[in-house]
Write a structure and sequence with these properties.
Shape of chain B: globular
Strand content of chain A: over 45%
Distance between the termini of chain A: 36 Å
Largest sheet of chain B: 6 strands, mixed
Structural class of chain A: mainly beta
Structural class of chain B: mainly beta
Number of helices of chain B: 0
Number of strands of chain A: 11
Oligomer: heterodimer
Distance between the termini of chain B: 41 Å
Chain lengths: ~120, ~110
């Protein structure tokens, strides 16, 4: 199993541009989470899906952020327009079932976003 | 509001010097407490899940314990390869997972 795959690994863009981050969860995992990590705020939950349906998006900072999961093997997080304060590492994580000791979160290696 | 606080923010130890990391939490209806390890440039990696006060889990030099208000990650005789950021997370209502900011641990050879 290749694990959770995120792309790109690094993204540098200018303020005002659209940014799209991509995630392929582990096959068979029903839950998908998007997190953002900064030194100041740590890991923040942005949104999570269950069986491709968004369950809780209360962590999405504002309308500039949107996430989709068109099928069980692909999700995107889009920022439009991007701002310098969006600079962070964005992680995608998946889990096979209701979170338990036997099915914890499996994280990708993140996308480091820099907005200049 | 559900909250997770970890201390200290950073810790430097000599190789072999045992210590403990703290995770205090305020959550309505704790369903589980998780410990993760994060290496630079990588995503967090799962270590333990604890469900109820009094529970303990061990893995090599690490032992996690849980009370009604906090969890400890005890590190016994650490080695340089134990250097990492250790993250605590709680599972609150539904399936929402809330993370603390982590403790950066550095073990000096």
């Amino acid at each position: 199993d290749a694990g959770v795959i995120q792309s790109p690994r690094h993204e540098v863009t200018e303020m005002g541009q659209e940014v799209t981050l991509r995630c392929k969860p582990i096959s068979g995992h029903d839950y998908l989470f998007w997190y953002r990590q900064t030194m100041m705020r740590g890991l923040e939950l942005l949104i999570y899906f269950n069986n491709n349906v968004p369950i809780d998006d209360s962590g999405m900072p504002e309308d500039r952020f949107s996430a989709k999961m068109p099928n069980a093997s692909f999700s995107t997080l889009k920022i439009q327009p991007s701002e310098p304060r969006d600079s962070a590492v964005y992680f995608c994580a998946s889990s096979p079932d209701r979170l338990t000791a036997n099915s914890p979160l499996h994280f990708g290696n993140g996308t480091r976003l820099t907005v200049t | 509001e559900d909250q997770v606080t970890q201390s200290p923010e950073a810790l430097r130890l000599q190789e072999g010097e045992s210590s403990s990391l703290n995770c205090s939490y305020t959550v309505s209806g704790l369903r589980g407490l998780f410990w993760y390890r994060q290496d630079p440039g990588k995503g967090p990696e799962f270590l333990f899940t604890l469900y109820s006060a009094g529970e303990e889990k061990e893995k090599e030099r690490l032992k996690a314990t849980l009370t009604k208000k906090e969890s400890f990650l005890h590190i016994t005789a650490p080695k340089p390869e134990d250097s990492a950021t250790y993250l605590c997370a709680v599972q609150a209502r539904y399936d929402k997972i809330i993370f603390g900011k982590g403790t950066r641990l550095h073990i000096l050879p």
